[in-house]
Design a protein that fits this description.
mainly alpha, Serine Threonine Protein Phosphatase 5, Tetratricopeptide repeat, 23 helices, signal
């Protein structure tokens, strides 16, 4: 049985409870207590057709006869109530509402039954999707003393939500949740999530989402709602933790979702973990091996100083159309690993392929790779081709380095010459003390001094200094 059918049954039951099915009904403002004989006979036929035979067409004909006659207050009250019942059964909601409202206005419904009648009218309006009128009569029902049970509280929560009175809807929905106790009803939690989100009550929203997630750990929409709540509150770190948990739980499968996790890791200074996830998902086919993604993977490994892992990725990117730019990056990675021969080869290929934004820097790195392999002439050539500040700095450094080396060579030769010269002076002083006091080494001083002087005069490094 559908919702409307159930609602219709509830209305009919309520009407029966409110004023009964027969003619013996109390009249609040009527001194008459019975039908006339003729009117009573027609009324009984109408009642029999409606209540027993369920022949509502016949019942309606009898009702028309009654309404065409002059009725006393007792008769009119009974006719209105039976007419409302027949109209409900025939699907004439507006007719039923007119009958019930007329009975209320004329005082034909006792005060003790007024609340139930207001409730019945509200349900009839609800059957016709007239939410505003349904809510209006639900309020009248409460004002007349109606005390909502769990189902009626739920109805009020939904009605207030449908007219965008979210705060009142929250009040009733929370009462329903309290009434349910440990009896978990998903629709109640879903409504509260919607309402808390609508009024931007992030604290209550977070709390209710956590409750739901405990019961539905694999339900994706609740994870998304929690993450969205943190995003809205600019709590990116918490949003990241939720996204990470979703990834580890296997809830994220689309490329954009997986890339969000990768970017989160990178944003929070974990480039190596970002690279690991990106490479894993690319190998699994869930993230495409596009040039853009390969470049990102290479960059992540390089930032993480994992150059050995970056190199094969850069090669793939170069093969995927990265051109000179990716080959240049390959050269840089080789340089970081001090693989100098591979550095020069990659950078030379990059320059030949084109697309290198800073050719001067590439030549500087080629020059450095040659320098490290002791190809000083080749290094100077590359630094000159660089024709930039870096290249000139390297040339000056090499000039200084070579000048220092020359000075050191000359210093050693000159020091040897001066040492022997000082030795000769000492030997000359000792001669005055007698030949027996002169060391044997003094005899070779003239020859050694001459040889040292010649070496000093003929050493190119020393001649360059003297000039």
């Amino acid at each position: 049985m559908g919702f409307k059918a159930t609602l219709k049954g509830a209305v009919l039951a309520g009407m029966m409870a409110a004023f009964g099915a027969g003619a013996a009904m109390a009249q609040a403002a009527c001194e008459e207590t019975q039908f006339s004989s003729k009117t009573g006979e027609i009324y009984l036929k109408a009642e029999q057709s409606a209540m027993t035979d369920k022949d509502f067409n016949a019942a309606s004909q009898f009702m028309n006869q009654l309404k065409s006659q002059e009725l006393n207050c007792y008769e009119e009250g009974a006719v209105l109530k039976l007419s409302a019942y027949i109209n409900i059964e025939r699907g004439d909601r507006q007719g039923a509402i007119r009958d019930l409202q007329s009975a209320l206005d004329k005082g034909y419904i006792p005060a003790k039954d007024a609340a139930q009648t207001y409730y019945n009218i509200a349900q009839i309006y609800l059957q016709g999707e007239n939410v505003e009128k349904a809510l209006e009569f639900m309020k009248k029902w409460q004002q007349a003393g109606g005390q909502p049970d769990r189902q009626q509280k739920w109805q009020l929560a939904v009605l207030y939500q449908r007219v965008d009175d979210f705060q009142t809807a929250i009040k009733w929905a929370e009462e329903v949740k309290r009434d349910d106790g440990s009896n978990y009803k998903q629709e109640v939690y879903d409504l509260l999530i919607y309402l808390y989100n609508s009024v931007d009550d992030k604290a209550k929203l977070a709390s209710i989402l956590e409750e739901v997630l405990v019961r539905n750990p694999t339900e994706r929409k609740y994870w998304d709602a929690i993450a969205g709540n943190y995003f809205a509150a600019n709590e990116e770190r918490r949003a990241f933790e939720v996204q990470k948990a979703m990834y580890l739980a296997g809830l994220l499968t689309k490329e954009d979702e997986l890339m969000r996790v990768v970017n989160f890791y990178n944003r929070f200074n974990a480039p190596y973990h970002a690279a690991q996830i990106l490479e894993k998902e690319m190998n699994a086919g869930r993230i495409s091996k596009s040039l853009k993604n390969l470049e990102l993977l290479a960059n992540l490994y390089q930032v993480a100083r994992e150059h050995e892992k970056a190199i094969p990725v850069i090669k793939q990117a170069a093969a995927a159309g990265g051109g000179g730019a990716m080959l240049e990056r390959l050269g840089r990675s080789y340089a970081d690993l001090q693989m100098w021969e591979e550095t020069e080869e990659a950078l030379t290929d990059a320059l030949n392929a084109g697309g290198v934004k800073d050719r001067g820097t590439a030549y500087v790195m080629i020059g450095q790779s040659r320098y490290e392999r002791n190809d000083r002439a080749g290094a100077r050539e590359a630094f000159r081709q660089a024709n930039n500040r870096g290249g000139r700095g390297w040339l000056q450094f090499m000039d200084s380095e070579e000048a220092t080396a020359d000075a050191l060579v000359c210093f050693e030769v000159q020091s040897a010459y001066l040492n022997i010269e000082n030795e000769a002076k000492i030997c000359k002083r000792l001669e005055v003390l007698g030949e027996e006091n002169v060391p044997e080494s003094c005899k070779t001083v003239p020859e050694r001094l001459k040889a040292a002087e010649e070496k000093f005069n003929n050493t190119p490094e020393c001649r360059a200094q003297r000039s």
